[in-house]
Amino acid sequence: MDSRHSSAAKGILDLDSITTAVFLTDSRGAVLYANASAEILTGLSKNTICGQDASLFFRGLPQWLKRFCPGGAEPERQGQDSISEIVNLYVPQYSEAGHPVRAAVSAGPLLRGQPTLLIEFTDYEMTLLAARQEHQFGFSEANRQVLRNLAHEIKNPLGGIRGAAQLLDSELTNPELREYTSVIIGEADRLQGLVDKLLEPYRAKRQVTSVNIHEVLERVRQLLLAEFPQGLTFERDYDVSVPDVSADREQLIQVFLNLARNAAEALEEKIKDGTARIRLTTRVVQQAVIGMRRYRLALSVHVIDNGPGVPPDIKDRIFFPLVTGKPQGSGLGLSLAQNFIQQQGGTIDVDSVPGRTDFSVLIPISEPSK
């Protein structure tokens, strides 16, 4: 890239720190510069992108070059500041299959009178994901405060109810009447257990150490195979280059145990006929966007099962406390997992259709980009 153009581009903003894909082209459409987000969007390195015809990615580019670059065929349109449109972006790994990415694109001259065009692409799906993560963070924090306050308010009267039932039970001689006090005590204990689970994330102090994620996943796999010894198969697709992460090991075990057990319980029918599968994958993701912040490196872990899928009526609320699709479920496992991962600065998301449910966990490895 020409040093004058490079300096100008970096003088406008730090292009590698933003979450939208940016290309700089010359008057013929050859890519002079691409930022880190352009690498993520195209799946190509900067060295590969630079020098290519940008029309490979955006087929409307020739018309835009005519509008903005000197010598174009439409002089009456030259001098416009910028233009924005909704377009199909032809990303190499998708376009061969005929699936262009729908994107918002804006373009304009980098410097007035210079034969360069600055093009910015915003992937709708990535934008929606980032917005959903941001909403998830905000909602979860407010939700946690409400639940914590509610749990504390329930604890004291619940103890009083149980104590009164015990005193009454000791005074009763009629076995039939004592059955009623037994029910009161039993239900009070059940509710106490539920309250304890709601408060669990706030009680224990996090013990942050260097954690090998594969050791965590192997521990989870062993626990689940002991619980479901027949009919359940684990498939492992581990990236051995994944570095250790700074995290609370016990919390991570709980997170992935909850996700894997949730998957196993959904596979009840397939376990019976021996076709139940849970796939565990690990990868290092570069330039990951988590909650509107970019991280140079992040750990990506997927727990994928071949079960019936998440019921559509709870899919959007699957991480809410007390929401469950299981008759005997408490609805706290996924909420607790989300809480622990958010304490780590990461996110959990789910993609589910009949026959495949994928819980994906993204945890930062590096510090966020400035």
Structure commentary:
The chain has 370 residues and is of the alpha+beta class. The chain folds into three domains: 3-126, PAS domain (Beta-Lactamase); 128-203, Helix Hairpins; 208-364, Histidine kinase-like ATPase, C-terminal domain (Heat Shock Protein 90). The chain contains eleven helices and twelve strands. The chain has helices at 3-12, 36-42, 46-49, 61-68, 92-95, 124-171, 175-203, 213-227, 249-266, 268-272, 333-343; strands at 21-26, 31-34, 83-89, 101-109, 116-123, 208-211, 232-237, 245-248, 276-290, 293-305, 347-353, 356-364. The strands form three sheets. The chain has a five-stranded antiparallel β-sheet with strand order 2-1-5-4-3. A five-stranded mixed β-sheet has the order 7-9-10-12-11, with helices on both faces. α6 (124-171) packs antiparallel against α7, α8 crosses α9 and α9 runs antiparallel to α11 (333-343). The longest helix is centred in the middle third of the chain and has 48 residues, at 124-171. The protein is elongated, with a radius of gyration of 27 Å. This is Sensory histidine kinase/phosphatase NtrB.
The CATH superfamily label of the largest domain reads Histidine kinase-like ATPase, C-terminal domain
Approximate shape:
elongated
Q: How does CATH name the architecture of the largest domain?
A: 2-Layer Sandwich
Class by SSE composition: alpha+beta
CATH level 1 name of the largest domain: Alpha Beta
Q: What's the gyration radius in Å?
A: 27 Å
Major beta sheet summary: 5 strands, antiparallel
% residues in beta strands = 15-25%
Q: Compute the number of structural domains.
A: 3
The arrangement of helices and strands along the chain is: HEEHHHEHEEHHEHEEHHEEHEE
In DSSP terms (H or I, runs of 4 or more residues), the helix count works out at 11
What is the end-to-end distance? Answer: 24 Å
- Strand arrangement, major sheet: 2-1-5-4-3
